[in-house]
Amino acid sequence: MKSFAVTAYDPDAPTGSGFWHWAVINIPASVTELPIGAGGDHGGGLPQGALQLPNDARLKRFIGAAPPAGHGPHWYYFVVHALDVEKIGIDPNATPVLLGFTMLGHTLGRAVLVATGEIK
């Protein structure tokens, strides 16, 4: 393993294709945790070399869960991807979907945390 990527996705967002809340690439393999606030504007809490890609709102930051009121529960998938390359080699303005396509041949393993959220 040479690096990690982290993604956050809501398949239940009322968009027809879900909503990517966050994508971070090029996290060094030596990193074992990300500090609170690592997904803030400008990625100040991220390890050196790591980059946030634009989410589906085209912001390079984490956008927290905010399902529409009355829409029912949303499932949020937070995934850590272990990769066989130090740098995934995509443009820093690429979409999380392109990241997923690019990681396909470089993923050694994944850890998935699923959370739910609902506003009634």
TrEMBL record:
What CDD domains does this protein's entry cite? PEBP_bact_arch
InterPro entries tied to this protein: PEBP, PEBP-like_sf, YbhB_YbcL/LppC-like
Pfam families hit by this protein: PBP
Q: Which PANTHER family match?
A: PEBP (PHOSPHATIDYLETHANOLAMINE-BINDING PROTEIN) FAMILY PROTEIN, UNCHARACTERIZED PROTEIN YBCL-RELATED
- List the protein's name: YbhB/YbcL family Raf kinase inhibitor-like protein
Name the species this protein comes from.
Answer: Paenibacillus albilobatus
